[in-house]
Design a protein that fits this description.
The mean pLDDT is 93. The termini are close together. With 284 residues, this protein is α/β, with parallel strands linked by helices. The protein has 12 helices and 10 strands. The chain is globular, with a radius of gyration of 20 Å. Helix content is 46%, strand content 14%.
Amino acid sequence: MFVSPDGHCSLATRVPQCMVMHDIGIIHFPGAFRKLHAAYYKWYVPKFLEKARVIATVSEFSKNDIVSRYGVKPEKLQVVFSAARPVFRPVSAEVCEKVKETWTGGREYFIYVGAIQPRKNVTRLLKAFSLFKKRQKTEMKLVLAGRMAWKNDTFIERLKTYKYRDDVVLTGYLAEDELVRLTASAYALVYPSLFEGFGVPVLEGMQCDVPVLTSGGTSMQEIGDDAALYFDPSDPAAIAEQMMRIYKDEDLRARLVARGRVVSSRFTWDRTAQLVWESMMRGI
């Protein structure tokens, strides 16, 4: 058997194939991809889906999306949930204070983790943070932890004239250990992505005992269950409203942290490996 972990198949071989298709974001947000990449996926994805004997995908949302968009028979797909790296875990109060001194001058902060590109919706997060700052009059910071990916012109121009530019920290690409410390030291994680097949940062925050605010719909609500606050990612005011809720309500914050431990414990790489193996066996 040929196993592809990231959405590709051989179209020539007669060997049975198990393909992992994380999502079909290319269908929903083609403008978020480079033209060459978009053309490649548009041409080949239907062929790959037809060729594969069994398809594993990372959420019920993605499974239903693939079935709906490409007419794949549901029985050809199996949900193989992803997981977060086990290195994402809580840090001590001492480490937390050191991280804040290093990155935000000792101030509390919201954190976004991910690449800076259109589908991640970071420009609307800036608008939401502006609304939050105007309403709360706080010294809270916003840390954007991730590399600059592509199609960032709007974001970069917005940031140049952004009223709260001094309260926004761009980290660029981070080594894993520093990303873990930065995530675990945050007041809350805000993940406003417009579309995800799974949404790993949601689990990373929960594993770190950090409350999570994320987009409703797509897969994030399926993965986060009752352990996160959800918002309409197209509405900066809705994002800001949840930021204000978590900022003002310590009891709510504590409940989300506790629920996050329970929900994140459901997703492990051992479970993923077992589900991938079961998918492979179905294809033989």
